[in-house]
């Protein structure tokens, strides 16, 4: 019974973007009320066969009312049928020119995977446009663990698992706990955070974390998931005891600026890093609540995004002027050393940075995923030990002003191809296969009625969380994973 109401909700969510386009608030209220009514109906004990007959009838009605330019498979109630539309080639024209650190304009095709060359001294030379990477036996075995499906098949969704609406303002970030299928946390510009349990059903809000005096811009789980670190435009960082649901330490920014982003040191969770509105990157000791000696550095703009490499020895910081700075950090002392700078797009804010040591077993390049306000998500290759970057390719994502974030899929190494996910100002969640040079968009989820700000998978990719500017959090359920829920 539960599966039927979720499928009915997913069906209506497909068409939600077409309801009252001039009144996005109504679309949010509609989908919330629809979710409530369907859940109540599911508990009534009516004949499941009758409820299943409702689905194709409802699909025909919605198609007749709104048309089906985006999803032609009228008999299917699965999101795959409407979300496989690729992004038009003309959209890519927006990023034909990107400004890289040498100050010159580069055409995007110069950096495509089919044309980029890496040269080495001596006889060793690696030329990507003349070598086709062939999967190894080990890669075949790993793909078998993931079901042996294509990227498109793996990222098809059966519908919505749950909708959370406990926040009264934009949800700035959403993150599942580390190596955890069931717990997800959200931060909001209403000044609070929430911790939710999504499985086993019913999904519930475990606790609300209140104490910030202004909007919470970012947060992160500790490695052991027992502490959450949050930062706010009220100029404070707070450490929360997850089990108790209480604040255990409040740390004020030393420069008195707004705190905009944060990250735990991955190899030493007794240290974390913050970025503020006064252009400062600061390493702070958890035990003392104070900045470490030599652990601060100033960059050119407001610090909007932070990310460590998996070793914890390289840190990247992105600012609102379009630059990314690389730092090396001493894991023991927290001392920062600024090493490099790259300008992604001058004058346009960097809003998200995510690092990955590998892309897939067939493409092990260390990579950095970056969102920036030029209608683009950029994938960089990490080319030096101190964090030097080289643009690999770009993807079309609607983003001009919102703080959009993106992420790597956690199980990408077990499949042929690799997938990244991003929110978007056009109210959609996009999936891109970074191994495809043409038509890289392999899925697109509709259901939000406001710009989607952040996305996050749980550890086994059975559930995806997305959040938007109107405070809605949607938990999406992957096809083929229902039994695990």
Descriptive account of the structure:
The protein has 485 residues and is mostly beta strands. 14% of the residues lie in helices and 39% in strands. It contains six helices and 32 strands. It has helices spanning 2-14, 24-42, 48-66, 80-83, 137-145, 151-154; strands at residues 97-99, 105-107, 117-119, 125-127, 157-164, 171-176, 183-188, 192-197, 204-210, 216-221, 227-232, 236-241, 246-252, 259-264, 271-276, 280-285, 291-298, 303-308, 314-319, 323-329, 336-343, 350-356, 367-372, 376-382, 389-396, 406-408, 419-422, 428-433, 441-446, 452-457, 463-468, 473-478. Strand 20 and strand 21 form a beta hairpin. Helix 1 packs antiparallel against helix 2 (24-42) and helix 1 (2-14) packs parallel to helix 3. 47% of the residues are buried. Residues 69-146 have low confidence and may be disordered.
């Amino acid at each position: 019974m539960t599966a039927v109401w979720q499928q009915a909700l997913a069906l209506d969510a497909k068409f939600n973007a077409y309801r009252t386009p001039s009144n996005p608030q109504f679309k949010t209220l509609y989908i919330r009320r629809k979710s409530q009514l369907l859940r109540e109906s599911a508990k009534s004990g009516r004949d499941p066969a009758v409820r299943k007959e409702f689905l194709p009838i409802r699909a025909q009605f919605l198609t007749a009312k709104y048309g089906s330019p985006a999803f032609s498979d009228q008999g299917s109630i699965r999101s795959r049928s409407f979300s496989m539309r690729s992004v038009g080639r003309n959209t890519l024209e927006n990023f034909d020119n990107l400004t890289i650190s040498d100050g010159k304009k580069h055409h995007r095709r110069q950096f495509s995977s089919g044309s980029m060359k890496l040269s080495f001294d001596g006889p060793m030379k690696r030329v990507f446009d003349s070598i086709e990477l062939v999967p190894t036996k080990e890669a075949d075995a790993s793909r078998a663990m993931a079901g042996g499906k294509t990227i498109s098949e793996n990222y098809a969704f059966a519908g919505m698992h749950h909708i959370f609406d406990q926040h009264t303002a934009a949800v700035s970030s959403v993150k599942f706990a580390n190596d955890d299928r069931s717990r997800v946390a959200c931060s909001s510009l209403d000044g609070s955070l929430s911790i939710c349990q999504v499985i086993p059903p019913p999904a519930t809000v475990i606790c609300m974390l209140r104490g910030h005096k202004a909007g919470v811009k970012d947060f992160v789980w500790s490695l052991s998931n027992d502490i959450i670190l949050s930062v706010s435009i009220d100029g404070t960082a707070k450490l929360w005891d997850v089990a108790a649901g209480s604040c255990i330490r409040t740390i004020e920014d030393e420069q008195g600026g707004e705190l905009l982003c944060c990250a735990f040191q991955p190899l030493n969770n007794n240290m974390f890093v913050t970025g503020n509105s006064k252009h400062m990157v600061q390493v702070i000791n958890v035990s003392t609540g104070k900045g470490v000696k030599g652990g601060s550095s100033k960059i050119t703009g407001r610090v909007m995004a932070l990310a460590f490499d998996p070793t914890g020895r390289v840190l990247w910081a992105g600012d609102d002027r379009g630059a990314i700075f690389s730092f090396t950090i001493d894991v023991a002392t927290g001392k920062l050393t600024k090493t490099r700078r790259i300008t992604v797009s001058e004058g346009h804010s960097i809003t998200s940075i995510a690092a990955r040591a590998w892309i897939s077993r067939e493409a092990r390049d260390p990579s950095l995923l970056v969102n920036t306000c030029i209608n683009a998500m950029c994938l960089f290759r990490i080319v030096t030990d101190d964090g030097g970057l080289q643009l690999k390719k770009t993807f079309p994502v609607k983003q001009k002003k919102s703080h959009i974030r993106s992420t790597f899929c956690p199980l990408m190494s077990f499949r042929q191809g690799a997938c990244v996910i991003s929110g978007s100002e056009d109210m959609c969640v996009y999936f891109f296969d970074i191994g495809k040079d043409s038509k890289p968009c392999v899925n697109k989820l509709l259901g939000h009625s406001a710009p989607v700000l952040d996305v996050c998978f749980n550890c086994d990719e059975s559930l995806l969380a997305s959040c938007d500017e109107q405070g809605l959090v949607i938990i999406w359920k992957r096809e083929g994973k229902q039994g695990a829920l």
